[in-house]
Design a protein that fits this description.
Structural class: mainly alpha
Oligomer: single chain
Order of helices and strands: HHH
Strand content: under 5%
Radius of gyration: 14 Å
Shape: extended
Helix content: 40-55%
C-alpha cells in the first residue's frame, strides 16, 4: 500500500530492516528516520523515553 501511494516520489526508498533500526540507519548513511505510531500507548512510551534521556 505504501509503495503504491508513494511511487511518484523517485527519491523515496522503503526498507523493512530485521535488526536494530540504529544499525540499519548507520549502514544506510541515513540523515533522518520517519517513524509511525500505532497506538496512543506507543506515543506515551516514546515520549517517556525521550524525556528520560
Amino acid at each position: 500500500m505504501i509503495k503504491n501511494s508513494t511511487n511518484q516520489l523517485a527519491m523515496l526508498k522503503l526498507h523493512q530492516p530485521s535488526g536494530l533500526i540504529a544499525d540499519f540507519a548507520r549502514k544506510m548513511g541515513a540523515c533522518a528516520l520517519i517513524r509511525g505510531l500505532r497506538h496512543v500507548s506507543d506515543f506515551e512510551f516514546e515520549f517517556q523515553m525521550a524525556y528520560d534521556e
